[in-house]
């Protein structure tokens, strides 16, 4: 409803402005050659020249406002990976450079537009070219960019190419994407992921792991991504249907998941979830968000709806490549554990291997089949293998 | 189609002809480049209204997620917005079609089609395009593709919704989303027709510029507009066929069971037969067009700006040759940077470093252009007509938007801002708004040439200032929500408490977007009413040097009644010492002893 009101106001404003310009036109009737009336005269030049200057003020004001609200770089919060600070440093350097160039060039552009606004009788300077100037403003960007390119390439190479020694110490985790959820597959004690292909997908083996592969025997899956602090994690990404992108903004990490191939990204987490929650920037962000949520909850409760849960910080894995209708809600919680906690978590979860789950499911199916033959009319005993299919169908809704 | 109705409009009074025209040959199947340019412009404007209107609708969803609005029920209907609440598939459909329409139908065909057609023959001194017939076919193919695209909006399963980049497998599999059914088929058909249209147009422009220049019009005396259109046409011819091949392969994958882009897919409970293809291949093919496309959109706008800024500054454009060289450098580089859209696509990271290098190089010719524009203003006698304001606005948004390209072109930084609102802010400013400003500048400047009447300048001023404020208001804050990690193409952010503190920014952005969008009506009104009721123009209202202003106001076949004017000088002799007037048209012979003062 408010939007309607706003729109109405806007339309009325437009009408008023239109009338104003019409009046403007009427005042100009009879002033000289009729054909000149729609060409800028000294008065137009003056008014618009001043407006140009004012517009510079507007640009600066927007910039200042944004800096006031968003000067606490990086905006997403402290980086929680080893390579993160490098990315952030390059980002800040680039932003500062951009800020300087933007401030100076916009000032020149708008100031000139104001200063040299046309006046009757004023003659422009015939200044067609100057090779020295052209040289200067080719060479300065070239030098600055050369610096940025070198720094960027250095950082990129460090991030994307992991040397062999680091690779051996790392743990390997598969991130498996499908419309619209994430799953993680851990390589188990051998630290080698078993082979997998969508053609092996059957029942509880919903990641399509090749169960005959010796490396697959100890693989297990989790719906929550646990990673240890201080140890390199190599992610192997797969997708079973469309493109997805594994976006972990707090770790400055992102890689697409492509059906038909395995992509990879790796980083070393440096802050556990608990430590990150203690960071002043995050504390402030969470408090701010909770204030907003509390206010929203009041409104909701007043309408008779349930209040929102208060927010506690967690690392997230988001999908950042359009993947279908529910793309906007494809996420997984990431937990960075201390090495000891991670060990405990592994101990607890690693026995639940995929192979074991398949065996259990088969046994259950067999049992229910037997009971079904005893009571042929019991239709509730659907084979467990169908659950994924049903879940898929539901998700498509 | 309403576009047809508008094409019937009598833009100017009837006048004498060298031979008799029927209504149909004059207004519909015209082979006259001036009429074809008007057809392009009006079709482009109508598509623009659809495209901008869609953005206003999805901006409302982003500011007030999942709220019910009567406008939604009115425009989208009960199926796409049940109970007035836009659903998630509709949101994606709107985003997709908004992108497609704005990039291809408005800023490629509407901008390039209009002004290449109008200005190339008139500014080089030619009677018409090299092939009037091809030109007509080109327009009608464009029209047909627009019709198909608009029809796709009414398909039961919804229009294409996989984003304007239509990455498979999402776009290839109807099981993946409902918009990938008949809607996507129509999208592909429409684009295939569009590309055919664009290729015919481009070939025609190239041939015309090379062969039909009047006596004395050497390549180094061409106005920068023509240089920009010429180079644009060349990149179009190089890159559009690649998109056509991608579209055809996608059609094969979708309908005939091939596996160019698909492999190992399990969806909706079954394994599909596709084996061996790769979506990354599609990304390569798409961006091999997709990136040059940015310059296909932008270069004509920059060409128009060069001309408008020089004329209205009453000064020669600064560094004419440097401008030409930077256009050529940008065009060349634009064909070898496409990989910067794919740093994290899964391609070899080494390629990422190559593309970072080539991408950041583009900043050099771009910087040269920006500084040359600023220097052109210096010590000028600026006539701040609406066209001039839009041109200055273009330089402003080109700088603001271009600078953030330094961040996105850097593979390291792209990791964390890829596909966030930072990208949306960047490309809207540098190519969307800039090209749109170029288009507006062109319309305000050459409206008298097209329709023999003037646009109302005061409405033009209102249009510019509101648009300028709103454009910054919409896209400046987007950089910051992008840096805070907000992904684009999310129907709503309410599932992420992490982003709750960005919601008020979304409301601000949407408010600016709605105001800015509604104020385009000022332009629409000005445009259509001035066609009929605008003040009559004089032959050369802006006191410009280029040849189009030596042609009579009333349009005739062959452009000039007698002989085509000969050219004796470059187009930028504004305020040249030794002349009484502050402009010397290109067809004025050099005075005795007059020196050429530029290089």
From TrEMBL, chain A:
Q: Which residues form the Cytochrome oxidase subunit II transmembrane region profile domain?
A: 67-163
Give the membrane topology.
Multi-pass membrane protein
**What's the EC number here?**
7.1.1.9
Domain Cytochrome oxidase subunit II copper A binding, residue spans: 168-348
Keyword Electron transport found: yes
Instruction: Please list every transmembrane segment annotated in the UniProt record, as residue ranges.
Output: 47-70, 90-113, 135-156
Q: Does the keyword Transmembrane helix apply?
A: yes
Q: Which principal EC class is assigned to this enzyme?
A: translocase
Region Disordered, as annotated, extends over 366-397
Top-level taxon in the UniProt lineage: Bacteria
- InterPro entries xref list: CcO_II, CcO_II-like_C, Cupredoxin, Cyt_c_oxidase_su2_TM_dom, Cyt_c_oxidase_su2_TM_sf
Pfam families in the cross-refs: COX2_TM
The entry's localization annotation reads: Membrane
Q: What keywords does the record list, in alphabetical order?
A: Electron transport, Membrane, Respiratory chain, Translocase, Transmembrane, Transmembrane helix, Transport
* PANTHER family per UniProt: CYTOCHROME C OXIDASE SUBUNIT 2 (PTHR22888:SF9), CYTOCHROME C OXIDASE, SUBUNIT II (PTHR22888)
Family membership: Belongs to the cytochrome c oxidase subunit 2 family.
What is this protein's record name? Answer: cytochrome-c oxidase
TrEMBL record, chain B:
Q: Where in the cell is it found?
A: Membrane
Q: Which family does it belong to?
A: Belongs to the heme-copper respiratory oxidase family.
Taxonomy, superkingdom: Bacteria
In terms of Pfam families, this protein maps to: COX1
Q: Which PROSITE patterns match?
A: COX1, COX1_CUB
The record's SUPFAM superfamilies line, in alphabetical order, gives:
Cytochrome c oxidase subunit I-like
Q: Which InterPro entries match?
A: Cyt_c_oxase-like_su1_dom (IPR023616), Cyt_c_oxase-like_su1_sf (IPR036927), Cyt_C_Oxase_1 (IPR000883), Cyt_c_Oxase_su1_BS (IPR023615)
| Membrane-crossing segments per the record | 40-58, 91-120, 132-155, 186-212, 224-252, 294-310, 322-344, 350-375, 387-409, 421-447, 459-485, 505-528
Protein's UniProt name: Cbb3-type cytochrome c oxidase subunit I
Q: Does the keyword Ligase apply?
A: no
Membrane topology note? Multi-pass membrane protein
Q: Alphabetically list the UniProt keywords.
A: Electron transport, Heme, Iron, Membrane, Metal-binding, Respiratory chain, Transmembrane, Transmembrane helix, Transport
Give start and end of each Cytochrome oxidase subunit I profile domain.
Answer: 23-568
């Amino acid at each position: 409803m408010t939007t309607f009101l706003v729109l109405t106001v806007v339309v009325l404003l437009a009408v008023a402005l239109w009338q104003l310009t019409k009046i403007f036109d009427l005042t100009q009737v009879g002033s000289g050659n009729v054909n000149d009336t729609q060409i800028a005269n000294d008065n137009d030049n003056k008014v618009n020249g001043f407006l140009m200057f004012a517009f510079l003020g507007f640009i600066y004001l927007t910039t200042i406002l944004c800096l006031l609200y968003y000067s606490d770089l990086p905006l997403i919060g402290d980086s929680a990976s080893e390579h993160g600070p490098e990315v952030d440093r390059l980002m800040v350097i680039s932003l500062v450079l951009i800020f300087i160039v933007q401030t100076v060039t916009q000032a020149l552009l708008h100031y000139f537009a104001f200063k040299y606004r046309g006046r009757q009788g004023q003659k422009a300077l015939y200044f067609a070219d100057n090779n020295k100037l052209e040289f200067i403003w080719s060479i300065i960007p070239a030098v600055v960019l050369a610096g940025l390119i070198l720094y960027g390439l250095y950082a990129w190479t460090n991030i994307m190419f992991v040397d062999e020694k680091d690779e051996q110490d790392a743990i390997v985790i598969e991130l498996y994407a499908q419309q619209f959820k994430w799953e993680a597959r851990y390589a188990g004690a051998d630290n080698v992921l078993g082979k997998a292909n969508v053609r092996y997908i059957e029942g509880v083996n919903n990641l399509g792991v090749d169960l005959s592969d010796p490396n697959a025997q100890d693989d297990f899956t989790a719906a929550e991504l646990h990673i240890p602090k201080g140890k390199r994690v190599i992610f192997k990404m797969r997708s079973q249907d469309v493109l997805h992108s594994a976006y972990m903004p707090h770790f400055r990490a992102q890689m697409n998941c492509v059906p038909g191939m395995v992509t990879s990204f790796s980083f070393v987490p440096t802050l556990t979830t608990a430590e990150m929650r203690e960071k002043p920037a995050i504390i402030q962000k969470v408090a701010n968000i909770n204030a907003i949520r509390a206010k929203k909850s009041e409104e909701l409760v007043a309408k008779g709806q349930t209040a929102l849960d208060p927010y506690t910080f967690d690392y997230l894995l988001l999908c950042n490549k359009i993947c279908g209708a529910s793309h906007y809600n494809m996420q997984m919680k990431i937990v960075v554990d201390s090495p000891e906690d991670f060990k405990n978590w592994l101990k607890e979860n690693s026995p639940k291997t995929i192979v074991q789950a398949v065996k259990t499911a088969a046994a259950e199916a067999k049992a229910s089949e037997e009971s079904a033959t005893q009571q042929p009319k019991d239709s509730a005993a659907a084979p467990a293998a169908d659950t994924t299919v049903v879940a898929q169908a539901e998700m498509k809704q | 189609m309403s576009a047809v109705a508008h094409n019937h409009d009598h833009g100017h009074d009837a006048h004498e002809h060298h031979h008799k025209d029927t209504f149909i040959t004059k207004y519909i199947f015209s082979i006259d480049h001036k009429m074809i340019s008007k057809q392009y412009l009006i079709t482009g404007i109508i598509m623009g209204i659809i495209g901008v209107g869609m953005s206003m609708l999805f901006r409302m969803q982003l500011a007030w997620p999942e709220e019910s609005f009567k406008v939604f029920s009115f425009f989208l209907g009960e199926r796409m917005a049940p109970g007035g609440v836009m659903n998630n598939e509709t949101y994606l459909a709107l985003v997709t079609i908004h992108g497609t329409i704005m990039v291809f139908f408005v800023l490629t065909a509407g901008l390039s089609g209009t002004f290449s057609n109008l200005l190339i023959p008139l500014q080089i001194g030619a009677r018409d395009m090299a092939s009037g017939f091809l030109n007509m076919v080109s327009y009608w193919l464009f029209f047909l593709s627009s019709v198909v695209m608009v029809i796709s909006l009414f398909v039961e399963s919804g229009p294409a919704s996989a984003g304007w980049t239509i990455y498979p497998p999402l776009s290839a599999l109807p099981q993946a989303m409902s918009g990938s059914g008949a809607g996507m088929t129509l999208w592909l058909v429409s684009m295939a027709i569009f590309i055919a249209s664009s290729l015919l147009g481009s070939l025609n422009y190239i041939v015309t510029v090379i062969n039909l220049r009047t006596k004395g019009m050497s390549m180094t005396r061409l106005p920068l507009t023509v240089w920009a259109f010429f180079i644009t046409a060349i990149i179009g011819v190089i890159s559009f066929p690649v998109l056509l091949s991608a579209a055809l392969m996608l059609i094969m994958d979708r309908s005939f069971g091939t596996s160019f882009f698909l492999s190992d897919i399990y969806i909706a409970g079954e394994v599909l037969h596709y084996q061996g293809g790769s979506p990354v291949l599609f990304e390569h093919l798409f961006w091999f067009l997709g990136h040059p496309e940015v310059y296909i959109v932008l270069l004509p706008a920059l060409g128009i700006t060069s001309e408008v800024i020089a004329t209205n500054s009453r000064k020669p454009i600064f560094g004419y040759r440097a401008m030409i060289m930077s256009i050529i450098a940008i065009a060349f580089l634009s064909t070898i940077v496409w990989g910067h859209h794919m740093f994290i696509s899964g391609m070899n990271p080494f390629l990422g470093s190559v593309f970072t290098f080539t991408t950041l190089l583009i900043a050099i010719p771009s910087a040269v252009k920006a500084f040359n524009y600023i220097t052109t203003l210096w010590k000028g006698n600026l006539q701040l007509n609406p066209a001039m304001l839009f041109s200055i606005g273009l330089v402003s948004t080109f700088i603001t938007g271009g600078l953030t390209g330094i961040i996105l072109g850097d593979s390291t930084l792209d990791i964390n801002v890829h596909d966030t609102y930072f990208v949306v802010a960047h490309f809207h400013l540098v190519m969307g708004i800039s090209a749109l400003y170029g288009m507006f500048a062109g319309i305000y400047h050459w409206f008298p040439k097209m329709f023999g009447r003037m646009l109302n300048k005061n409405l033009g001023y209102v249009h510019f200032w509101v648009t300028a404020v709103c454009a910054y208001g919409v896209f400046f804050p987007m950089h910051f929500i992008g840096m805070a990690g907000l992904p684009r193409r999310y129907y709503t952010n309410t599932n992420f408490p992490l982003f709750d503190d960005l919601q008020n920014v979304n409301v601000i952005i949407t408010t600016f977007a709605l105001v800015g969008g509604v104020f385009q009506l000022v332009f629409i009104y000005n445009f259509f009413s001035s066609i009929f009721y605008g003040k009559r123009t004089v032959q050369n209202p802006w006191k410009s040097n280029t040849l189009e202003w030596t042609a009579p106001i009333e349009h005739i076949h062959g452009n000039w009644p007698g002989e085509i004017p000969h050219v004796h000088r470059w187009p930028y002799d504004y305020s040249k010492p030794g002349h009484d007037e502050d402009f010397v048209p290109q067809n004025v012979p050099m005075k005795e002893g007059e020196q050429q003062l530029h290089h």
